[in-house]
Amino acid sequence: MDAWKEFEQNPISHSAAHHIVAIKELLDEYGYARVSDVARLLEITRGSASITLKGLKGRGLVTEDDRRFLGLSKTGEHVARSVIAKKTILKKFFIDALGVEEHQADIDTCKIEHLVSSETAERVAQFLRFLDSGDPSSEHFRKALAEFDEPCSGDTSSCPCCAEACLVKELGDDELGS
Amino acid sequence: MTPESGSSQREEVLRRLNELFAEETEAAVRYLYLAATVKGLDRATVRATLLEGIRETLEHAQTIAEKVIQLGGTPKLRIRVEVDDGLTTGRDAIRTALAFEQAALDGYKELLDLAGDDVVLEEFARAQIATESEHVSSLYLLLDE
User: Fold this and answer.
1) Which CATH superfamily includes the segment(s) B7-143?
2) Can you give the pLDDT at residue A146?
3) How many domains does chain A have?
4) Which residues 82-141 on chain B approach chain A with CB closer than 8 angstroms?
5) A93 in a domain, yes or no?
6) Banded model confidence at residue A10, pLDDT cuts 50, 70, 90
7) DSSP B34
């Protein structure tokens, strides 16, 4: 019941995860990262980037040398790798297993990549390994899933997923109030 | 540089100016928030500095917007201010202000690099750098670190 509180207490905020991953991407691509590069990559002001990075430096995740070039500490590097790995696994799951369109998969993974636990990500990776294993049962599963196009009837009495209300109907559009 | 100047350099200058427009506007909002949340024995002194910061950064934002218009562009404002909840000490408020003031100073330095042989833009960038440098120095003096 208190899981929602964990969301707010997550050690790596959405913004922090983006800054750390941005530094990692810049270092991998150009060999250096400055505040201005991070700001431009994330399409935010330098001031915003600078303030977030100040907090991350204080927490020992980001480093800065005398010439103000940014780096990642061992822990920062670990966080970056973990977030990127979770994003990659989840995006593949959304696209390959669920058939979500790539753009939407990108948006949705971005929202949860830093929040999902390593345990869950590992289970998703395991599921994807099974799907790609070439095992006849996985092939059968894939085929059956792809062919399952039975529309939701809204009848909760015969639905193995829903209980009192049709969960799919509850989803609505993503716009507020719709 | 005029509205008729070569398009690619002009577009780049306008892009940088609009970045600075957002930078200064965000800074004004941050100063406002810091002034509202600063606590401690030095609250009065620091708050006065922060309130002065609102006035100065808004002035800079207006100057930049004017410069964008002079170059035939349209001021564009894309800002997103995320702040930590809670009260702050005077020292931490000044440290935060230094972070975004230094960022603005770096932005003006980049603008100067872009000026090329445009004397008017060069003078504008130099004047802003001088003002921002003084501001950053005065914040450092307050910190006394």
Assistant:
1) Ferritin, core subunit, four-helix bundle (1.20.1260.10)
2) 84
3) 1
4) 82, 84, 95-96, 99-100, 102-104, 106-107, 110
5) no
6) low
7) H
Q: Is residue A43 part of a domain?
A: yes
Per-residue CA distances from A84 to A24, A37, A98, A99, A158 (Å)? 10, 19, 20, 21, 40
The reported pLDDT for the residue numbered A114 is: 86
CA–CA min distance B105, chain A (Å)? 10
Residue A67 gets the label, from left (phi > 0), alpha (psi -120 to 50) or beta, of: alpha
- Quote the ipTM score: 0.83
The helix (H) or strand (E) run that includes residue B38 is strand B38-39
d(CA B92, CA A72): 23
Query: How far apart are the CA of B56 and the nearest CA of chain A, in angstroms?
Result: 16
Q: What is the bridge-based pairing of β-strands B38-39 and B88-89? A: parallel
pLDDT at B54 over 80: yes
Q: What is residue A25's predicted lDDT score, i.e. its pLDDT? A: 97
Nearest to A54 among B78, B80, B99 (CB): B99
Average pLDDT over residues A41-48: 94
The model's pLDDT over B93-117, given as tens digits with 9 standing for 90+, comes to: 999 999 999 999 999 999 999 988 8
Interface test with B, best of A51, A52, A53, A67 (most B CBs within 10 A): A51
pLDDT category of residue A126 using cuts at 50, 70 and 90 = very high
Q: Is there a domain that residue A8 lies in? A: yes
- Residue A54 structural domain: 3-78
Domain ranges for chain B, please list them. Answer: 7-143
Q: How near does any CA of chain A get to the CA of B108, in Å? A: 11
Contacts of A9 in chain B (CB under 8 A): none
pLDDT at A150 over 90: no
Kindly report the CATH number assigned to the domain that includes residue A15. 1.10.10.10
Distance CA(A13)–CA(B3), nearest Å, equals: 43
Nearest CA in chain B to A46: B103
Residue among B23, B96, B110 minimizing CB distance to A45? B23
Read off the pTM: 0.80
Number of Cβ within 10 Å of residue A21's Cβ equals 22
Does residue A144 lie in a domain region?
Answer: no
